[in-house]
């Protein structure tokens, strides 16, 4: 796990190869085991394989080409009915998404967290017939990676990040 965390990359180019449903469920399973405040588990998901629906999603973001080439799109929602504290619910959603990205990596697949599409969150919700209580949080595009993983974009050093050690 400790190697998987820095080893995971955002993958944006996918091979035309189907991802088995069992792997999709393995990824969702990792998501649902994320921590959440009061264990409220506010995440909800839509799994999109349909080409026409993917095309409509693609038109809602400038990262449409990633959506078109990915075999599966996972749409992640926050269920306001399950929520109890906006900040903590959002943090839980982030943990859920990161768990799924790590599961994608662990499964030999590639994926990327797509946030730019949030500007059209309402349209995504109605396209996917999300329940009224569900707010769109992110899309994850996933599939078998095509070509080599990109170079690591690197991270700030610990020295830059820790402002105090008392
Ligand atoms: C909240 C959030 C939104 C993101 N939105 C996009 C996006 O819309 N399009 C995209 O190509 N990558 C998106 N990314 C992926 C980041 O660009 C990527 O994680 C970052 O550059 C670091 O690269 P790495 O994931 O390979 O370490 C997003 C990541 C996060 C956490």
The molecules bound to the chains, other than polymers, are:
flavin mononucleotide
Helix percent reads 25-40%
How many domains? The number is 1
How many helical elements? Answer: 7
Largest sheet: 4 strands, antiparallel
**The CATH homology group name:** NADH Oxidase
Q: How does CATH name the architecture? A: 3-Layer(aba) Sandwich
Low-confidence stretches: none
- Percentage of residues in strands: 15-25%
Radius of gyration: 16 Å
- Which secondary-structure class do the elements indicate? alpha+beta
The N- and C-terminal alpha carbons lie at a distance of 29 Å
The CATH class label is Alpha Beta
Total strands: 4
The residue-averaged pLDDT reads 98
Shape: globular
Q: Largest beta sheet: what is the strand line-up? A: 1-2-4-3
Please name the CATH topology: NADH Oxidase
The helix/strand order is: HHEHHEHEHEH
Quick gist of this model?
This protein is α+β, with helices and mostly antiparallel strands and 166 residues long.
Which SSEs are present, and which pair or pack?
Elements: H1 4-7, H2 21-32, E1 43-48, H3 51-58, H4 64-69, E2 72-79, H5 86-106, E3 110-114, H6 121-127, E4 134-143, H7 158-161
The structure holds flavin mononucleotide.
Task: Describe the overall structure.
- This protein is an alpha+beta fold and 166 residues long.
- The chain has one domain (7-145): NADH Oxidase, CATH 3.40.109.
- The protein is 37% helix and 17% strand.
- The chain is built from seven helices and four strands.
- It has a four-stranded antiparallel sheet with strand order 1-2-4-3, sandwiched between helices.
- Helix 2 (21-32) packs antiparallel against helix 5 (86-106).
- The longest helix has 21 residues, at 86-106.
- The radius of gyration is 16 Å and the shape is globular.
- It starts with a helix and ends in a 5-residue tail after the last helix.
- 31% of the residues are buried.
- The model has no long low-confidence stretch (mean pLDDT 98).
- The chain binds flavin mononucleotide.
- Flavin mononucleotide binds at residues 9-10, 12, 63, 112-116, 153.
